[in-house]
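Handoff note, outgoing to incoming analyst
You'll be picking up this chain. Sequence as last confirmed:
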Amino acid sequence: MSFVDMTFDDTFEYKSMPAGEHQLRVLDAEVKDQKPEKGTGSFIQLKFEVLGEDTAKDIYHVMMLPTPQDDKKKANNRKLAVIHLMKAIGAEVKSPFDPKEWIGNTGWAILEEETDPEYGTRNRVRRFVVPA
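Most recent structure output, in case you need it:
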């Protein structure tokens, strides 16, 4: 029989952060295609950590990319969202770009809290704070 000896005294549950402005670091960023039953578009899936908050849950954020089916306003809004993220994390606004190059970059965002039946209370990015 094998026994495992470990201390659980320093173990904690991760928590969401209070709504407000927080500094984030990009932990992962990749382009993915939608599942066929949801459409034919692509999106950038991002994973952030809240800097200085070891007990904070990681934050997942999805940014839809423009599609040929989008009207002008929808395509523009999707492009603006990417531009605002790039500026907020100090990335060069250029095309083409590789979101993997953003890993490690930091920036500020306004977070909100939401309760999800599957994931419990978690944070969502309301908007990225673009430096003046």
